[in-house]
Amino acid sequence: MAQNIFKGLGIALVTPFKPNGEVDYVALKKLVEYQLDNGADFLCILATTAESPCLTREEKDEITKLIKELVRGRVPILKYCGGNNTAAVIDEIRHTDWAGIDGMLSICPYYNKPSQEGLFQHFKAIAAVSPLPIVLYNVPGRTGVNMTSATTVKIARHCPNIVGIKEASGRLEQVDEIIKDKPDNFDVISGDDALTFPMIASGAAGVISVIGNALPKQFSRMIRLEFRGEYEAARKIHHMFTELYSLLFVDGNPAGVKALLNDMGLIDNVLRLPLVPTKIETKDKMAEILKRMTI
């Protein structure tokens, strides 16, 4: 039975672009090293925050190759592979070189809005062909369907190589239900930076974080303090982020965190259409908060 190794601070890694729109591999290398030097426990690559719908297959392959070469086994790598066509996801799994990758993140099918039984059958079919442990991704704000706690636990019990769920439903009662009923080899991982503190307090194993791209040292410290039961010290760090939590997402993701990384001198503030940079007033507010924090 597979065990979840994706614990602590996971980084939902952004894709840096040059001003001309090309992938900036030099900035990507700098960003990965920054994460590894500042407390990241694992990397989550080529998912939502990476603007993966706007990357070509060749770019995804090159990004994956570069990250594997940089990481060299220092932390686990969780790579996205999902969609709303079960057969196509299975085909992608079968034709992908998974060497050097430690797990697969797979989203609830979007747009076609499957039933709970449809979600169960989708992930059961994927699990049957996956050579790697799978982390589910429940994000109803993007997919249009919420996978219930009962369905999540059912999947976890039927598919021993499905080892966790990135829960971004925003429903803390749902998180509690999963944690209460799940098998021992299955973990809940926060998919919402703002809810990471209460979710870990309830028993979550970590977070796949957007804000961690910019502030991994501080965010990982909060998580480590919680794991040690030092909740008051962790809460103080959590409250340091309160303003940033909302500002990061007010103009969409990853517009906010790319603006923050730009102010830190790590990447250019460039996104691919249909996404655009965050508003100037939002960027200025975040820059002011950044000045007050210890980087």
In short:
This protein is an alpha/beta fold.
Give a verbal description of the structure.
The chain is α/β, with parallel strands linked by helices and 295 residues long. The model has no long low-confidence stretch (mean pLDDT 96). Strands 1-2-3-4-5-6-7-8 form an eight-stranded parallel barrel, surrounded by four helices. Helix content is 45%, strand content 13%. The longest helix is centred in the first third of the chain and has 15 residues, at 57-71.
Topology (elements, then pairings):
Blueprint: E1 8-12, H1 25-37, E2 42-45, H2 57-71, E3 77-80, H3 86-94, E4 103-107, H4 116-129, E5 134-138, H5 140-143, H6 149-158, E6 162-167, H7 172-181, E7 187-190, H8 196-201, E8 206-209, H9 216-227, H10 231-240, H11 242-249, H12 255-263, H13 280-292
- Could you give a short account of the major beta sheet? 8 strands, parallel, barrel
Helix-strand topology string = EHEHEHEHEHHEHEHEHHHHH
Global geometry: globular
> Structural class per helix/strand content?
alpha/beta
From the alpha-carbon coordinates, what is the Rg to the nearest angstrom? 18 Å
- Cross-sheet strand order for the largest sheet: 1-2-3-4-5-6-7-8
Portion in beta strands: 5-15%
Q: What is the averaged pLDDT score?
A: 96
Contiguous low-pLDDT stretches (5 residues minimum) are: none
Bin the helical content. Answer: 40-55%
Q: Span from first to last CA?
A: 40 Å
Q: How many strands appear in the DSSP assignment?
A: 8
Count, helices: 13
